[in-house]
C-alpha cells in the first residue's frame, strides 16, 4: 500500500507533508467492519509505503486518527479479490 498524508496551510494555500505520524492499515470483509492490521509511520515526505499479505477478499484502506491541529483522514477502501 502507498499513500501520502498532507495538511493544508491556509496561510500559503499549499498542502504540505506530515512526517513521523502513525497511520493505520485497515481491512474489512464485505460484511465486516474495519480492523487495524498494522500501524506504520509516515516518512519525512508524508509517504506511507508498506506491504500486507491479503489472505481473504475484502477492502483495504489507510486511516489517520488526527491530532490537535489536523483532523482525521480516511482513505476510501480499495477492494481486493483473493483467488
Automatic annotation (TrEMBL):
Protein name in the entry: Bacterial Ig domain-containing protein
